[in-house]
Amino acid sequence: MFDLSLAQVLVRIVAFIVLTGVHGVLIAGLARLLGDRGPAYDGRLTPNPFTHLDIIGLVAAVVTRTGWIRPLSVDPAQLKGGRFGLLAIVLLALLLTIGFGAIALGLRTPTLQIMPLTYANYVLLVLNAIAEMSVWFALFNLIPLPPLTGGLILLAIAPWVHAVVLRHAMWVGLGLAAIMLLTRGAFLQPFAQPIIAFLLR
Fold this sequence. Notes:
mainly alpha; transmembrane helix; Site-2 protease family protein; membrane; 201 residues
């Protein structure tokens, strides 16, 4: 995660921006399917990544391969299944984000077939980064703290605690990113590597 070249930084920026749009629209779409129109009213039911992008989350993603999107407001009271519906949204959105990473890997062969090699090489790097970062992103965002997607898990379990932590979400995110940076993601590595290896196969 250290000693990143300019090319690696650019690849990770592009990869994370793509993941931001995918993950954001997944959460908003799943919330809408389960009955909460709030994210749609907030303009979040869109694949436009810049609607969901959190700048600090982007910087964290470039440095640590993880990161977060701008938190969405989802109301468990509006969802079918209530708090269990909210838990389902979080888990399914993160799982589908990894699925999108698998799709990105599947696009490598068509990319080589239709693009000039000069451009194809860069696109391949981005596709590989999307796949790898989707796994790190999903695992990291399982942590039940705002501003991560897992913060919605905390909302489902202890709404009052979520409200308190949400007020300090930026610092929580920076603290978690610092832990990832200092440990090189050691606490996620045992989970991330097998999933990434499986996707690559």
